[in-house]
Structure formats: structure tokens, C-alpha cells
Amino acid sequence: MRIAFISGNRSSWGGSEVLWSQAALRIRAMRHEVMVSVHGLPVTPRPIVGLREAGMTVRERRMNFGRRAERLRHHLFSKIQKSLLVEPLPSQDRRDLERFRPDLVCLSQGGTACALEWMEYCLRSRIPYIVVSQANAEWLWPHDAQAERLIRGHAGAVATCFVSKRNLLLFETQIGARLPNARVVWNPFQLCYDAVPSWPDASEGWKLACVGRLSMTKGQDLILQVLADPLWKDRSISVSFFGSGPIEHSLRRLACMLGVEDKVVFQGHVESVESIWAGHHALLMPSRCEGLPLALVEAMLCGRPAIVTDVAGNTEVLVDERTGFVAAAPTRPLVAEAMERGWHRRAEWREMGQAAAASIRQQVPRDPVGEFVDLLLASDTQLT
Questions:
Q1: 197 located within any domain
Q2: Phi, psi of 373 (to 5 degrees)
Q3: Residue 350 lies in a domain
Q4: CA–CA separation, 299 vs 158, rounded Å?
Q5: Is the dihedral of CA 110, 115, 119, 125 positive or negative?
Q6: Which residue range(s) make up the domain with 343?
Q7: Are 353 and 371 in the same domain?
Q8: Reading across the β-sheet that carries 306-309, which strands appear in turn?
């Protein structure tokens, strides 16, 4: 087969890019022809270099418009969209795909709409495609015209995939339509499936880890606000932030402003997930928006309980009071309530982590990439 992987993500490389990129490597190793198209970033991510080294055609799409030209472009397209409801793809992007002549296109989205123009192009060109949508949120409702485009785009796919049941149901609610071709897929985790890191000593305090991109969607600011409550001042607990992102400096200033800089540590990005959990007792992740976070699955695989918010797929794998603690919504009072419940049951964290490890292995397949590759290759028999 000739398979093209196109990422609609416009920000830095993150968890939403792992499934399609690892599938591309697996399919290329099976001697299929593979093309990759991604938005160009200031520094090419190491995984993209790896795709090139594996013998794939890699296209980094770059926007060359100046600010004035970009404003004019959006003004013109806003008028065109009122009648056509389609923003044409840049001609170079279309030519790249036309030259490759794919049998199938895999469109990966950080949300639910960032690859919409690609869906519409594939539909017009009669190119079979599969869509993968990672995150969704209650506030991302499309307006009517866009919803109609999204219905056609997702319904026209060989399969449209979501990483949690809840995000799929939310999207169907947002567009007011069922998607019979929809299914749930799993993201791959970045550690050994059988990992069993040792339980950390708590004699010098309880250590929580918040793992993920430093951004508004992950809710790190809520952690700092809760820790600023006098109730937490004398508690022997600390939070380590693992990751980087666009609000890192703001979070550092906020920690100082709230007087909790002695409670938090900014660790940056680390390669070994197991090393995180060898030194931390639980995951703390008060996200405002998610898919099914890799950080949660990985923490549970490593035998750690989690304190999370009831968004997206979190409660599809974690059970409140049994394998962790769930805040009903990403607000400071509700996150504080969940953290308080967790703190008072800290003596049970190890036992809860063991229950989490057993539970997640009953849900997550050992090889999520292999299952996704099977879906892509099986599409060849469904194409007409």
C-alpha cells in the first residue's frame, strides 16, 4: 500500500503525535510506501528526523505569509467561506499528495477539526482516509456551518477514531449527528508494559508528579492555587512538574506570587517515564481538556494512583476512591476537594496503585500501535 500520514497539529510535538508516527514506522518496516506531512516547527522534532531516516518522504509544511498578507488572506477566506464553506489547501500541499498517489490517508488531529480541510480535499478527490481525533472539550462547540462540514468530513472517512468513548459521544453531541463509522483506539505508552518501579520512600515527604505539556489545558495553575491554601503549608508534600510549554514562565511567576515555590519543582522533560515513578507516589493532573492522557495510563501501569479531573477519558480507566481520586470538574474548589481526600488516604496510596496497575492491564492492549496498524492495513479490503 501507499499510505500518507498527515498531522493537523500546529503546535509543538506532543502526545497526540505518537500514535500515527509510530504506526508510520511500523508500516514502513513492513515495506509499504509511506509519506508524512506535518506543520514545520522552528526546530525539527527528533521523531521527524527518525521518520526520514526510516526512508519516508517527509514534507514540513511552512507558512510564509507576512503578518499583513496573513490578515488579508483570512479576510478573503472569511468571505469565500460564507458561500463555499471550504478553505482551500495551499497548492504545494495538494501537489505533494497528488504526486504520492496514496491508497489511504491517515489524518491525525490534536482536536476534532484541525484537519477538516484535508478531509474535504480527500472527499473531493475520492481518496480514502481515516481520521484520528485526540482531544475534545465542552467549550469547543462548532458553529452550524462548521458542524455541517465536520459531519461530512468525519462521516466520509473509512473510519473516524477517538481515543476515549466520552470524547466520541461529546463530539456527536456537538455536531448533532451519530457517526456509525466511529471507533475508539488506544494511544501507545512510552514504557515497558510490564514495568514495576519500586515504591518510593515517604520518610522525607510525599511526592506528586504532574506530567504533561505546561499549558492552560493541563490545569497546572489549579495545583498552585490549591497549594497556596494555608491548609497545605505545613504538610510534607511536593509537586514536580515534568514537561515544558508556552506558560512555563507564567507558572513559575505564579508559584512565587502565591508563595508556594518551596512546594513545587519544575523538572523539564525527561526521557524515562519509569524514572519519574521511581521517585514519586502519585500522579496529579487537573486537566481542563484531554483525550485519554498517556500520563495517566503510564502512571497506572507503574502502580501509581492518580488525582485527576472528570474530563474526557479519565474516568474510563480510573475509579474514584479505588484507583485514585476524581475532581468533578477542573475548578479550584473541586480540585482542592479531591486532593484533600487523597491526602487523608495517603497511607493507602501504595495499595491503590497496585489496584490501578491490575485494572489498567485489563483495559489497555499490550501493543496499541499494532492494533492501529491492523486497522489501517485492513482498510485496503474495505476500499471501493
A1: no
A2: -60, -40
A3: yes
A4: 33
A5: negative
A6: 206-361
A7: no
A8: 264-268, 237-242, 206-211, 282-285, 306-309, 324-327
CB 149 within 8 A of CB 44: no
**Taking the CB of residue 17, how many other CB atoms lie within 10 A of it?**
20
How far apart are alpha carbons 284 and 6 in whole angstroms? Answer: 32
269 and 290 fall within a common domain = yes
* Angle subtended at Cα 120 by Cα 187 and Cα 163, rounded to the nearest 5 degrees: 15
How would you class 76 by CB atoms within 10 Å of its CB: exposed for 0-12, middle for 13-18, buried for 19 or more? exposed
According to DSSP, the residues that pair with 140 across neighbouring strands are: none
Residue whose entry in the numeric block shows the C-alpha cell 476534532: 112
Q: Give the total number of structural domains in the chain.
A: 2
User: Rounded to the nearest 5°, which phi and psi values hold at 175?
Assistant: -95, -10
Give yes or no: residues 226 and 184 share one domain. no
Q: Is 58 a domain residue?
A: yes
SS3 state at 242: strand
Alpha helices in the chain (DSSP H): 18-29, 46-53, 67-84, 91-100, 116-125, 144-155, 165-175, 220-227, 248-258, 273-278, 294-301, 314-317, 332-344, 349-361, 368-382
Q: Provide the b/e sequence for 264-278 (b: ≥16 CB within 10 Å).
A: bebbeeeeebeebbe
> Going residue by residue through the chain (384 aa), what tens digit of pLDDT does each one get?
999 999 987 766 778 899 999 999 999 999 999 999 998 877 888 899 999 999 999 998 875 444 444 444 444 444 434 333 444 577 888 888 999 999 999 999 999 998 999 999 999 999 999 999 999 988 889 999 999 999 999 999 999 999 999 999 999 999 999 999 999 999 999 899 999 999 999 999 999 999 999 999 999 999 999 999 999 999 999 999 999 999 999 999 999 999 999 999 999 999 899 999 999 999 999 999 999 999 999 999 999 999 999 999 999 999 999 999 999 999 999 999 999 999 999 999 999 999 999 999 999 999 999 999 999 999 865 554
Question: CATH no. for residue 221?
Answer: 3.40.50.2000
Q: In this structure, are 344 and 374 located in the same domain?
A: no
Same domain, 259 and 378: no
Q: Is residue 199 part of a domain?
A: no
Parallel, antiparallel, or unpaired: how do β-strands 33-39 and 2-7 relate? parallel
Shared-domain flag, residues 248 and 292: yes
